[in-house]
Every structure is written in C-alpha cells, then in structure tokens.
Specification:
Number of domains: 1
Strand order of the largest sheet: 1-2
Shape: globular
Order of helices and strands: EEEEEEHHHHHHHHHH
Distance between the termini: 50 Å
Oligomer: single chain
Number of helices: 10
Largest sheet: 2 strands, antiparallel
Strand content: 5-15%
Length: 263
Amino acid sequence: MRVREHGPILAWPDSRGSRPDGCGAGALTVGTVENGRTVHPQPIAPEGADFMTDTIAGIEIPDTRAVAEATDFLRDTAGPLLLHHSRRVFLFGSLHARARGIETDPELLYVSAMFHDAGLLTPFSDAEQRFELDGADHARSFLLERGFPEHAAEVVWLAIALHTTPGIPGRMGGEIAATTFGVLTDAIGWGLDRLDGGQVEEIVAVHPRGDFKKEFLQVFVEGLKNRPDTTYGTVNADVLEHFVPGFRRGSMVRRVMDAPWPQ
C-alpha cells in the first residue's frame, strides 16, 4: 500500500495480515486496510452514541468498534474539554488533508486525534516521560490489543508523539501530517483562513470551544507541573514558564557549557 502525503511518498507494507480474532490474511474485518482505506463490513457503534455516525462539515465519522471505544475512553477519562478538542482536531485535520490531496485512513486519524492529549491527564508509563509519549504508547497498545497490524499502530504512535514538534509532521505520512494540522488549527488558529467558514461554524456548533484558551492551558499546567524536566526542548516549556512561578526552562547552551569536556 502506498500512502500519498504532503511531502514525499512513503511506501508502507500491506496491512492485511493475520489477526488474533482468527481472520486470515486478507480478511476484511474492523481495522483492516484495503487499497488505502479502512474496510468496515459491519459498522459498530454503542447505543446512545448518536454523534458517532454523524457526518460533520462533510467529514464522516468512522463507524467502527475502535472509534467507538476510543471515544468512550476519552469521554470517561478526560471529560468534555479534551473530547470536543480531539474531535475538532480530527475534523479540521480531515478538512486540511482533503484540501491538500493528502490520503489518510480515517480510522487511524481518528484514534490519533482521540489519544493525542491523553497523556496530559493520566500517566500511562511508570517512567517520567513527555506527555506525548504517554499518549502515543497508550494508543499503540490500544490498537494492538484490538488486532491492528504493527505498522498501523506505529503510524498512530508517530502522529501523537510528534504532534507538538514544529516543522516535521507535515512532511510525513497522511495521518501524521493531518493530526498536526488539526492540532495547530484548533490550538492556535493555523490555516483557519484556508477553511470554509460554514464548515468551521458547523464543527464548532457540534463541538463547542467554550472557554477553550484558558481551560486548555490549565490542562497543560496540571499535566506538566509535576514532570517539568520532560518539557526540555519543547513548546511545553512555554506553558510552565508562563504559569508556574520559579520554573526555569532548560538551555541547550547551558548544557553544552556544563558538559564534562575540557574544551
């Protein structure tokens, strides 16, 4: 399978491998990718989750078990702020991908969006590490436990791990680029002027921002203040520097000068 992206073309192995649910190679099951698209022979969504099957701003929400369970996970652990933010990330990322001719697997893009900030709220690792890695590690486990192939889980891992890294994700594969495009649009308004105003209004009507700027930054403070060293070299240090008295961001210059070399 070849995935077209914003930059060069990446060739990824075919994802139609053997799955732990007993389906053989090439079987069309939830999460299987066929010709660059996820094939869903039996769409599954939980009862009462009406917006799960919506088409919002011309973007269809994938109707699969993995999508439903990822949504339930974020709803149960993070609450409305990050749930609405993450859904907007998926929708804005999808619109940018469509406008740029970037091919994505909607199911993988959706899971990437759902887990991209999950590491801010729950430390999934025993090790002290960047929140992006916590979310990426958990998303990877989430997919592998549901029978997704290794390379599909790796795509989602990269999309989440790199989503705060400037400049690089947009040059990578479709889901990786689109996740970052969606994050940038919802967080700082990047590319907002290139989206259709009516579609933006529709997205925000379904997933309102509320007092997003203030509350979102506070989520970052709470998620990072007890692991400040993990923010070295990242935009996350900006948040702690602004809100946490006494925080001093790490300096690459200082580290070079203090290195145990004579010159």
